[in-house]
């Protein structure tokens, strides 16, 4: 009887240790996922701040680049043909 109680207690302790080990593995896994997501969040916020500073800058090079990009966007919005320059449809 004492032997079976001892075996039952040992099995329970082993089961508890297994559960604690599994819990520790899950905690480590979720900590890694949280660290990766936190790193991406901090990098994105840093990018936002840096880009905000860059756009607020009045550097001559940046102003030239901004004007060039704006001109390219305007050219991209223009129609390829002028209105009324279509070929006649009765050819």
Radius of gyration: 34 Å
Provide the domain count: 1
Give unreliable regions as ranges.
none
Portion of residues within helices: over 70%
Report the count of strand segments: 0
Query: What is the arithmetic mean of pLDDT?
Result: 86
Order of helices and strands: HH
What's the overall geometry? elongated
Separation, N- and C-terminal Cα atoms: 107 Å
Give the topology.
Blueprint: H1 2-56, H2 60-77
Task: For the structure shown, list the relevant keywords.
80% helix; single chain; 91 residues; 2 helices; mainly alpha
Description of the structure:
With 91 residues, this protein is mainly α. 80% of the residues lie in helices and 0% in strands. The mean pLDDT is 86.
In short:
The chain is mainly α. The protein has helices at 2-56, 60-77.
């Amino acid at each position: 009887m004492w032997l079976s109680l001892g075996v039952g207690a040992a099995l329970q302790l082993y089961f508890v240790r297994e559960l604690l080990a599994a819990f520790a593995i899950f905690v480590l896994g979720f900590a890694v996922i949280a660290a990766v997501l936190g790193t991406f969040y901090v990098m994105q916020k840093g990018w936002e701040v840096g880009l905000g500073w860059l756009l607020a800058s009045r550097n001559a090079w940046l102003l030239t680049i901004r004007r060039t990009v704006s001109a390219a966007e305007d050219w991209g919005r223009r129609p390829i043909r002028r209105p009324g320059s279509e070929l006649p449809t009765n050819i």
